Amino acid sequence: MSERRAFSVAVYARKGGSDGRILVIAHTRTGLWLPVGGEIEAGETPLEAAVRELREETALVGSFRPLVGHCEGVPAGYIGYEEHVTGVKGLHMNFVFVADIADADEVTPCDEYTAHRWVDRDTLESMIDSPANVRDFGFLALDAEAL
Question: Which parts of 35-117 fold into alpha helices (H)?
């Protein structure tokens, strides 16, 4: 029997561009600081899943915009791809996005996390309770320039 595989998305909600902050959540199951995200549902594109997951998990509506240097056909806000094994859920093949959030928008938490916080570049760098790939993509999200 082959290992379970799931297509998922991670969304780095960002306020204030490259000098700003990104949202991380204390994931209930893992206890790690992670971006918002989840599995892509049947019939969804990765971008549609990213929009849905951001809204479901935070009540935020983000602006997913094409990024400087993007290739034709690449979804708006797409910053990369990574794979990781997640316990019984198997291999997650993860599409990673950045979404700009209006400064006045407030997070409405859901039961998938115990806490949330907006972190700047310096805080992100020192977050040892977050996987290295989360920090690396966080830096990419902060550096991403929208068209």
Answer: 46-58
Of 2, 22, 1, 24, give the one whose Cα is nearest residue 144: 22
CA atoms of 38 and 26, how far apart (whole Å): 14
What is the per-residue pLDDT across 48-85, written as a single tens digit (0 to 9) for each?
999 999 999 999 999 999 999 999 999 999 999 999 88
Tokens of 28: 């209930």
- Sequence ranges of the domains in the chain: 5-143
The CATH architecture of the domain made up of 5-143 is Alpha-Beta Complex (3.90)
Q: Is 121 helix (H, G, I), strand (E, B) or coil?
A: helix
The pairing of beta strand 5-15 with beta strand 91-100 = parallel
d(CA 74, CA 97): 11
Question: What residues are paired with 15 via a beta bridge?
Answer: 21
| pLDDT tens digit sequence for 6-60 | 999 999 999 997 789 999 999 998 899 999 999 999 999 999 999 999 999 999 9
- The stretches of the chain forming alpha helices (DSSP H) are 46-58, 121-125, 132-143
